[in-house]
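Allow me, if you will, to draw on your knowledge of protein folds for a short while. Thank you for your consideration; the sequence and its tokens are set out here:
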Amino acid sequence: MKAAEKPDANVVFSPFSIASTLSLLLLGARGESRRDLEKELRYPENFSCIHEEMRHVAKTSLNLLTASKIFHRADIEMQPFFINQSQEFYGVLPEQLTNESSVNTEMINQWVSEKTQHKITTLVDNVGLDTDIIILNAIYYQGTWLTQFDPENTTMDSFRSPDKTVQVQMMKSENYKLFIKNDFHLKAKVAKFQLSGRTSLLVLLPFDSTPNSLVDLESKLELDTFLKLMRDLNAAELTDAMVALPKIILDTKTDLTWLLGDMMNFMHSYKSPNLCGMTPQNPLLISDSQHRAVIELSESGVEAAAATSVSVARTINVFEANHPFIFILWDEKNEVPLIMGQVVDPTSTS
């Protein structure tokens, strides 16, 4: 849905960060609002263990720092149960906002900056004095390639975007160890690059670079299809390949208010949820929901915070990411996507 909004733009977001934020909100949701959130997050109804699972992922996902925070207006009374549960599962102690909008904005952005190792310095532009509650989650990931790229082999090369060809810094290796598969259902070549801390970077590269090839790939990438792809890659043998991967820095900010409302098909419930488990002062309005994610690919590895040319003439495996592709930063231990998105123009940061 985010890609459909601007199909010719880069996209990066963190499914885990968004799910963590909504799961924290779920602690305080009741009635229809709770059932709606459980349904759209694909949680079993009244599955209270989900909060323990979220805590487990946060603690065991190596190379990942994640933190949540709640800010609320001074006259908002927080339910003791919610305070205890949010601290137990998410390490959150609610903090009061001040009576000055600029101070609140700076306080929130400073917290986000600290928790993302200063990769994301601004999340909110303004915190109005009518704001009741703000729930935040920040993640930061840094991992190194198990097979390193030599910086001396990085050269300028062409990347074919739908409407133009741009010159980018392309990391190259003549003999790179990775898992690779041609998926003829997805019509894409898929590579899994190993990273430290039991994580990996999946790159899904359409067989061709036509304007609709990325949209077609996304339309076929359903859950069952993706899980089968992961099983095939996990069963595959590590192989040597000639690799070309662009250096990128992506930074995308997403307004979740309209996106979640449309995706969940319960805008009224989302905008005016029943949060009596969080505070007895209902109804509350969710006036703003922002998400921002950053990812960087370089010779040393992947750094992220919270988005093909097939040659049959060569006998060696080739993976040249020289046209738009989808990427997924995958936690192998917990089997969850940490960061994902699409690259349409590596020369653009947004």
In short: Residues 11-142+249-295 form a domain with the Antithrombin; Chain I, domain 2 fold (CATH 3.30.497.10).
